[in-house]
Amino acid sequence: MTVEFQECLKSLRLPAVKDCFQKLADQARAQRYTYEQYLAEVLEREREERRRHRIERYLRASKLPLEKNLDSFDRSRLPAKVDAQLSLLLEGSFVDRAENVLAFGNPGSGKSHLLYAL
Predict the structure, then answer these.
(1) Number of H helices, E strands in the chain
(2) Where is the IstB-like ATP-binding domain (predicted)?
(3) Strand residue runs (E) in 39-113
(4) Within 13 Å and on the Cβ side, how many CA atoms surround 106?
């Protein structure tokens, strides 16, 4: 990779392209990709990497306790009705409908834990 090419990728802020373009170029030659197919693959890698970094940045900024997830929650403590409602919430359709989730219960019953996990 030439210095000029590296500088170009740096100034355009394309770090994922810098990391993967050579490997993908070799793969493209071996599989006889068109230029468009190669470019599409390189740009898709950049897009995926940016999405991953954005999610990580948002999670850090949210300051949500990442240890509060569904794997660390004991669902057997929940009444059957609440467990059924939780299953519906986990589908995520309330997000598509832009609905709020309200949680009521005694202190220490796991409300915050479940809402963090959602």
Answers:
(1) 6, 0
(2) 9-118
(3) none
(4) 3
Number of neighbours of residue 16 by Cβ within 10 angstroms: 19
Task: Tell me the per-residue pLDDT of 1-23, one tens digit each, with 9 for 90 and over.
Answer: 688 888 898 899 998 998 898 89
Q: What are phi and psi of 105, to 5 degrees?
A: 165, 175
The stretch 46-56 carries a mean pLDDT of 95
Domain with 19, as residue range(s), is 3-62
Name the residue type at position 107.
P
- 52 lies in the same domain as 10: yes
Residues 55 and 7 in one domain: yes
Structure tokens at 100: 């709020």
Q: Looking at the 3D structure of the chain, how many domains does it have? A: 2
Contact 81, 52 (CB under 8 A): no
